[in-house]
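Hi support team,

I submitted a single chain yesterday and got back a structure, but I'm not sure I'm reading the token output correctly. Could someone confirm the output below corresponds to the sequence I sent? I've pasted both exactly as they appear in my results page.

Thanks,
R.
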Amino acid sequence: MKLIPQHTDLKDFASMAESFRTLMTYYRCAIMEVETKFRVLDVQLSLDGENNPIETIKTRLKRPESIAAKVRRRGIPFTLEAIEQNLFDIAGVRVICSFPEDIYRLADCLLRQDDVTLIERKDYIQNPKPNGYRSLHLIIEIPIYLQNTKRMMKVEVQLRTIAMDFWASLEHKLRYKKDLRDTEHYDQISQKLKACADMSAALDSQMEAIRNQIEGI
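Hi R., thanks for writing in. Yes, this is the structure output for that exact sequence:
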């Protein structure tokens, strides 16, 4: 299989590859910026006498093969400009919180910062997906400061509770890793997974109520 078309100059290909690596580095810097913002918020909220709202922060930079597959699937031109303008999930930050209230408080604190621009918001906690998936998704744009310039970069932020993250991780492994769509058990398993998602949501609600009761004593 030929990876480089015959009409492509090797110097041009090398230049494209280097430009792509540079772009990925910019996305990595954007991830670090957002992660730092959340870590600062976590410390500041704990100084106010509250417990740290963040349990874990996970980050992800989309792999080149995943980017290429999404570009082909959506019919996007394979140029760096088109990738930046159309793919908003290349840089990802996932914030795992203790309680649902923490999710909205952190999101509000983040979006009030004057260098953060909200591009898109999807609330799958108030409006879960049909399979039971719950999470708050934000697409934000932030600046990264380079040696001689400032560059605006988009980052996808997901905020979940521990229960939401546990369910989503297992659901992904069980459903997609085993390619269940063509099996006779698909509908039955989907119903069981949805029931587990509902139980996880009920657990979040009950634990939050207990937390509020304890803080009110």
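A quick pointer for reading it: Confidence is low (pLDDT under 50) at residues 1-8. Let us know if anything else looks off.

Best,
Support desk
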